[in-house]
Amino acid sequence: MPCNGNLSQVCGGSGRLSVYDLNNAIISLPTLTTSSIPVPTYTGAPTGWEPLGCYNDSVNGRTLNTQVYSIAGTSMSVDTCLSACIFGGYRLSGVEYGSECYCDHEINNYGAPATGCTMACEGNSTQFCGGAGRINVYNYTATSLPSTPTPTTVSVTVPTATITDLPEGWTYKGCWVDRALGLGSILANNLPNDANMTVESCIQNCITAGYSIAGMQYYTQCYCDSAIINQGALASSDSQCNTPCGGNSNQMCGGGDRMSVYSNQTDIKVLPLPVIENRALPGNWKYKGCISLCSEYGYGAGGMEFSNQCFCGDVQNVIDHNAASVNDSQCNMLCSGDRDTYCGGPSLISYYVWTDTQLNSWTFESGNAAGKYEFLIGGPIVPLTSTVGINGKVSFLEKFGTSPDKNSTGAYELDLTQVSSFDAAWRTMHVKTDIFCSASIVLPDRLARQINIGGWSIPSTIGIRFYTPDGAPGVPSKNDWEENYQEIALQEGRWYPSAMVMANGSILVVGGEVGSNGAAVPSLEIIPRPPGAGTLFCDYLQRTDPFNLYPYLVVLPSGGIFIAYYNEARILDEVTLQTQKLLPNIPAAVNNFLGGRTYPMEGTAVIMPQSAPYTDPLVVMICGGSIPGPEIALDNCVSLQPEVAGAKWTIERMVCFLSYFVPRTVSLMGIYSLQNE
Fold first, then answer.
1. 43 partner at 20 to 30 Å CA-CA among 62, 295, 321, 533?
2. In whole numbers, what is the pLDDT of the chain averaged over residues?
3. What SMART domains does the record point to (predicted)?
């Protein structure tokens, strides 16, 4: 390369240094003249472009911010750089230091006209390509940028090839120009060189690798892909593919930057140059936004990295981590599912944010409106179940026989009108077996009897316990829990079952395990037991054990029973208890669909309130849960109208705070310490 300050001297080159020894005189070097060194003469611009001249530039503040890395330095010219910028959607293009290309929409960092653009382009020595800290800038002057390129197909008419022993459906598609404009190969996957390569062997290797296009080049090189990329185009003459194949001199295998292409595609697919996606984004995403999956799960920020990784979160995450932006050109890895666009790079994310109506909007009350904590009364136990009785009192059950409190009887009742006196407020009751991980319901009869089933181990797991509330607030109660597993019991022992009162008043008991962390009990049974009836095996409960404990059950207004377990849901026939309708799988985390909602993944479910005339479809809402493995909690609720044909789950992110609903009274009934877990 000629020196910027003296065109008669050589100042290195691309990857080359002119080296001088301190002890030798400079005059010993041959004198170079302008006739022996190519001197750039071209100062114009291709059609549609206007040369703006030489501008200053700096690595600390680029005049044009987006650097193009896809053009090899030795191939750099004004034309190749301008082509790359226009395909990227940029109006400004600049060449610098003989081999660098930059693009942008505006002049940045106080870039201003300067002198010193004296370096020849490495790919075309008749053109100027800036200099050291100097950039030749060009402006696209057409009224509008070219439309964004889309994949096309090329119907090829080529001379009949002499090769007849091709795999079925494969034909010759012509001689193609490779690495046009200094870009990469037109077929991305280069197989190891084979000195004995033939057309047939290259095609077969590409078929084995799962590709539909094969290309041979320069005797021994075999390339595969499913589309032509990097501005691939047919050569002007098929005779340009004129190098014999290494394994068969009667066959032609491309040439220098020429590729003999074969394919089983009728019309061969040609992809445009990839760009950073800022078109046709879902919803109201704009550049620096994300994909539809992130917004579906309520995240307002997202990005793609390393071709195939998708991340979702909030804008605040980026702020909290002090993440810095870099030039778009550094996110230059093609998306694994769309080779027209870029999906970040190594440790770099193509970042997007949502700009329309907020996906989530949370407000928090303050002062008295936020509620208050009020100590009510100390408790004798840490209860496992609590039930408000028809007598205006609250019954509590806990582990019996294995309680941390060795003197516990396993059952107590609280009279809320007597909280000023511990002894008057608490009445000691009794159970006979351990109710740990049991299920409780209230019967819809005039006595509102309470029933508790299942438990910790035999005989607790088959236990059925009754309590008929009596007394009144301020009036002592006398009734106690009744239990005799030798006379009335479940047909199968159950730990972590669910129970529900059916429309006819019977009790449906579902699932569980034989005991603490034991084998699954994948069945249903009815209380009281119908004459001659046994349990009903459910393959879906066996298949999803141990993630389906405490399944959610709902009686549907239209008939049938809704059941949700792990991450699945269905409707059962209320008579046969067989599956009547499969419902969509329950969404979990944005990055793990295997998350679950029932125990041990710890979610909860409710039905939304209904109002007269009760014609709106019933809505089931399930909140919380976790994913397997690290067991990270889910931060969303999902809702469904199970009776509506084609209904889909709706996802709503929820704040991780205690939420109050009317009436705003919450009872905190004890917490185990970590040592007890």
1. 62
2. 84
3. WSC
